[in-house]
Amino acid sequence: MEKNRIIILCLSALCFSGCADFLAESSDAMLTWEMAFDTPEKLEAQIYGIVDAFDQSDLFTQSMQEYLHSASGIIIWKAQRLADQWLDGLYFTKYSADPKNSTRYAQLYTGVNRCNSLLDGLASSPVDDDFKQEIGAEAKFYRAVFYYTLVRLYGDVPLIVKSPDASGTLNNPRTAYYKVYEQIIRDLNDAEEMMRDKIRAEQMAPGKGRPCNWAATAFKASVYMTIGSLLSSYEADPSDQFFDETNPSRLPDFSAIGITGADSAWNLAYETSEKVINYGPYSLVPDYRTLFRWTEESDWYLPERIFVIQNTVSVKSGNKLALYSLPQYCEGTSQKEIENGNDGRYRPSRFFFQKFAADNGGVKGTAATGEDNDIYVSCPDPRFDATFIHTSYISEKNQKKQTIYPYYNRIYTNDSGIAYPYFKKYRDPRFNVNTGYADFYMMRLAEMYLISAEASASLSESRGDVWWNRALDRIETLHARARASVDKGTAFSPSWKDREFGSTEDLVNAIMWERFYEMSGEGHEYFDTHRRGARWLVEQIARPLNEHLHQVEQGPKGDVPGVWAYTYLNHEFTTSVQDMRKSLLCAFPYVEATYNSAIDPVKDQNDFFWQ
Q: Potential cystine with 212: which of 69, 198, 461, 518 (Cβ 3.0-4.6 Å)?
């Protein structure tokens, strides 16, 4: 085990910018490089080094939830925003000079470089070719996921598929976004063909939750969905996306991966997601709540899991998801005495909490019960209570009830803990002060149902046609599972049985919100609120948010400042489609643009971004 740890550390050093100098100046380094690939155990160790890269400080299981997804309109920080951090939320983007933006970019490339290092070293490895092939395919899968994250954040990014060497360069120009998507699909195709199947993956790494070849198929469905949504908004209105009509190199061209327009992308998304649903080695768990229970050993091995970042003690030392999402001394955890001021740093916004309830049979409070009578305080959809900690909870420190939103007169005080609900999904009984052991779902089977539904609705030409009904069927499967996720009987919500949709656009929008209700707090918010274009972001997020800010619950009571006044300083979200184009991508990190000589800090900045 210690040998494996040394190899991982050695290879990690090769992944950073000093790699070329390190190799050029040290002949011993070359010997170490060769030795790092000479046994199957060392190759497996490098795979774990790549997997560990997903869990860096500013990525998926840590501060990305807070710093990126707070620019979605769905998630909010617990306290007042400052300077660019506050503006990021108002403008749905991340600024060029934001340190978290630069760090996230660098850490994603750390993952890419670890994949490249392994793939380059396999060529001269003496290990059996079949073993090398499946290890290389898994590395390509991970590289595809890293690049899929990068291209959705920044559009054009440097496309690097080789490790830098003594004669190489660390300065790489940005590659057109559609060529990055081409590489992602190439990597996923190779992974789909050559990765281990589920049985062999478990045999080779028992209990480690390593993804199998079907995970590559599932991610292909997600990639096709994203391309389909980009093209749909562009074809409806060329000014709706970040593509630049005056620059031919910026126009969408996905022909190299067999996509000639939105419909062909949606067809691929539908076919690929249905393939996973019908033939993959996965199944939906009967009870939605089980996905976030974390009390039974089986909770870490559920059949719905496609790709997860695992946090069991046997795999790694845990993550910050519980700390950043739960209230202090949350009931059901082990936190009883020691304080940590970082608790509850990212929350579901009041707007999202209210919309979830409103769309799924929610109940409003009454003044007679001591609750606000103009807002929703509960919801019969079982996913609601599985997702949120709201109204109150019992402190593990003193066993007293702590009242939180939504509860009468909880507009705002300096203790912002009561001003918003909390996410519940990462509450596990072993959480104590810093480290939690709940897993992070990079992808689970329910998303395949949602992709199939969205693709079907996007292909539908009229209300009630075949595609329309396919979309409804896939949503009903998830709704039926949710309704059954109660201790006794069946809940009456969620259900679309009596809901009418006037157009395919209405149906698509409803499915988009279903993604949020089903998977909120699971790292999809920023990506999903941005991929369908500026008009969608204005109409579905910004305008409803502005209406929400004017509700009574956002305003002051007595001398206490309201949430709107405190959190947003009485500012509203932009509702200009042209301005919203500036929010579709994060600004390219200033640090990278400054120190990468192949990138012009001004000319190579994203075409539309907030100055």
A: 198
